[in-house]
Amino acid sequence: MTSAGDSADGKGLPTLIRLCLFYAAIFLVSGVSLPYAGTFLRDRGMSGGAIGLILAVPLLLKPFTGPALAVWADGFKLRRSPMVLLLVGAGLGYAGLLAGKNLFWLILAWFVGQTLMSTVSPLIDVITLRRARTEGFNYGLPRGVGSSAFIAANLAMGAILTFAAPTIIALWIVAACFAGALAAAALVPPERVHAEGAKPGRAERWKGLGELMRNRTFLLAVGTAGLIQGAHAFYYGFSAILWRKQGIPEPMIGVLWGVGVAAEVGFMWFLEPLRRRWGPERFLILGALAAVVRWTAYAFQPPLWALFLLQSLHALTFAASFLASLRLIEKLAPPSAASPAQAINSALSSGFTLGIATLASGPLFDALGSFGYLATAGMAGLGLIGAISLSRQSRSLSHDRLRY
Predict the structure, then answer these.
(1) What is the pTM of this model?
(2) Which of 102, 189, 360, 404 is surrounded by the fewest CB atoms within 10 Å?
(3) Which residues contact 395 (CB under 8 A, 6 or more apart)?
């Protein structure tokens, strides 16, 4: 545990409060970009296929851009320095959305903005996980505040769009990025990338990344998390459309989405002690099991009362598996490769796997309707197999240590 002075880093606010405020700042971006990017692009004259392509490009390239940017970020003295630059760059990239209506220009602008923005989250997670461990607070608290800010931004933009043109979507995202850059400079603790203070050369940093990619247990962990998280793709893209076809009114659809995010926040805030007792491997199994049940049930268009119960499973399908993956990656990666490790995890779980599943969801929806959920239930099933394998490996290592 650190002293009160250390936890505040000499700037008056405790570390936990500062991290909560920073997570809130960056989720004001995604709270609008994720739900409303399609609305903005539609207003720019893009077809459904073009919108899907624009949104998918950063996801599909994230396995390459995410680790590369993380290695670049590890070349700084302080972890917050690259976050400031990434947020400024993201704001400029998103601003490019306002400069033209050409498909290739919009792909480029969205790629720059989304790629740089999505790199911030794994970088701040590295700091928050370490500070949570050394200062004794729950990582889920600042992350849950971020999710709450996501809901607030989502609701605010929904209200704004009742009287404003969709151009306001891009303006909000750009302004939030620049505000996030200021927040990174003012609020993120001045933590060194390397404890000894020396900055390793570029070749050494890439060597650390190569060692990670040769670690089979690490690859199994990120692949398993990617399958469980990627299984949300059909839900993200088509749940609202399918619920409308069931006759569920728009306000109630908004409530259903809110129930899912509220369950996620509640899990992160209140169930951290349970995760510590059970361990990340068991939580990953729990998240995968819940995903198989949830997506299989959605395939058969359950009634509204059942949807409320199933939406509460978002606490397990997303939050439990997300937190478990962060802890697993932190445990498996050496401290010198913490940023690239979390970037690789993010690249697969919220990047490539989700991107592939998103591209596949359209044809699945056209061909199968709600039964497209069965394909994502199958993804979750593969994730369950991986989670069980990780748990067995963990038990085997524990037994070996006890033996010796």
Answers:
(1) 0.75
(2) 404
(3) none
- The whole-number pLDDT of residue 7 equals 47
How confident is the chain (404 residues) per 10-residue block, as mean pLDDT?
43 85 95 82 81 83 83 85 96 95 94 94 87 85 89 83 90 97 94 65 55 77 90 82 81 78 85 72 93 97 95 93 82 68 70 80 84 95 94 64 41
